[in-house]
Amino acid sequence: MPRALVTGGAGFIGSHVADRFLAGGYEVEVIDNLSSGRRENVPRAATFHEVDVGSSEAGHIVRNHGFDVLIHLAAQIDVRKSVADPVRDATINILGTLGLLEAVRKAERRCRVVFTSTGGAVYGTFANPPTPEAHPKEPESPYAISKLSAEYYLAYYFQLYGLESAVLRFGNVYGPRQDPHGEAGVVSIFCNRLLEGRALTVFGDGLQTRDYIHVADVVEAAWLGATRPLPAEHGLDSRAFNIGTAIGTNVLDLASHLQRAAGTNVPLEFAPKRPGEQQESFIAIGKARRVLGWAPRVTLPEGLANTYEWFAANRLTGATGKS
Ligand SMILES: NC(=O)c1ccc[n+]([C@@H]2O[C@H](COP(=O)([O-])OP(=O)(O)OC[C@H]3O[C@@H](n4cnc5c(N)ncnc54)[C@H](O)[C@@H]3O)[C@@H](O)[C@H]2O)c1
User: Fold this and answer.
1) Residue tagged active-site, from 26, 143, 153, 212
2) Which of 164, 253, 274, 294 ranks highest by number of CB atoms within 10 Å?
3) Atom 18, ligand 1: which residue's CA is nearest?
4) Which atom of ligand 1 is found nearest the CA of 10?
5) CA 116, 132, 17 angle in degrees (round to 5)?
6) Beta carbons within 10 angstroms of residue 91's beta carbon
7) Does residue 259 line the site of ligand 1, with CB under 6 A?
8) Domains of the chain
9) Known catalytic residue: 143?
10) pLDDT (tens place) for every residue of the chain, 323 residues total
11) What's the CA gap between 140 and 120, in Å, rounded?
């Protein structure tokens, strides 16, 4: 049986990735320190290790458990926290990733690494979306810098050691199990607000766009990134793929789709625009289509309805972060 290691497999996206690899016939192990993830998210059929990605235990597991693929999702994911404590962000996102790459390099079995980066942040503020992979990078936060640094290490390890890797630069991922805390998930925050009958807070005029992609589509990209042949060229963008819809959706439209899914009509409350917030952000996805044979399948109304239903069904279990 092929073997997969999922770091961050107790988190939102990682737990769905672990499900997908189990369904695809892999033996799956999960590494997660439960700093934001939940033990209950880890599929029962997976072997769970409650360790930090930067620890020597994690290195030992990667070197000795004979993985064919490592899908690396464990990360410090909060942009504001990265600004407040860039050293901690870099320790997890750069040094944590580098430690894993060193362990993969020394492992006996050849193992491909799938790394999860961000199409929302590595390109920075740009004039003309949809942004392709080769667009100049202008990371504007420690989080974006740490993700891009890890990408450079992956490109370097490919050039120097032939360590195979795919980089997935996600848009704004939403779906069941997303944590509504922090600034990561406007969809999950709105779902909780709708369930409580409270107003939805919109920053600025609500016309700022983002590329919202359902977790089921992201998981399929992780599967294809792990299993499809990849280009052999060197360079930062050679095996990097934007994973989004190439559609910019503004917050007002997002709110009205969710109002429809919830069958409610709570008011919107407007708050001042957040400093430094990008106005338009969505990414070109032709390369993932061409090379990985990937395409987004879940439409926004379907995906939002599915997500709202999950939040409604799980609200009283504590799985939504609210009890
Ligand atoms: N959610 C999005 O919209 C989005 C967008 C772009 C990129 N990403 C990337 O996708 C990945 C998964 O994000 P998510 O939204 O599922 O976040 P999440 O917080 O739900 O998952 C991250 C998981 O990593 C674990 N973790 C954090 N630090 C760790 C450490 N030092 N050692 C071991 N485990 C650790 C957490 O406990 C959590 O379970 C991240 O790398 C993130 O940067 C997410």
Assistant:
1) 143
2) 294
3) 11
4) 39
5) 25
6) 15
7) no
8) 3-172+212-243 (3.40.50.720), 174-211+246-283+292-317 (3.90.25.10)
9) yes
10) 999 999 999 999 999 999 999 999 999 999 999 999 999 999 999 999 999 999 999 999 999 999 999 999 999 999 989 999 999 999 999 999 999 999 999 999 999 999 999 998 999 876 679 999 999 999 999 999 999 999 999 999 999 999 999 999 999 999 999 987 655 589 999 999 999 999 999 999 999 999 999 999 999 999 999 999 999 999 999 999 999 999 999 999 999 999 999 999 899 999 999 877 888 899 999 999 999 999 999 999 999 999 999 999 998 555 655 43
11) 11
Report d(CA 121, CA 143) in Å as an integer: 8
**Residue listed under structure tokens 């400093």:** 275
Task: Write the residue with the smallest CA distance to atom 40 of ligand 1.
Answer: 73
Atom of ligand 1 nearest to the CA of 35: 37
What predicted TM-score, i.e. pTM, was given to this entire model? Answer: 0.96
Neighbours of 271 (CB within 10 A): 9
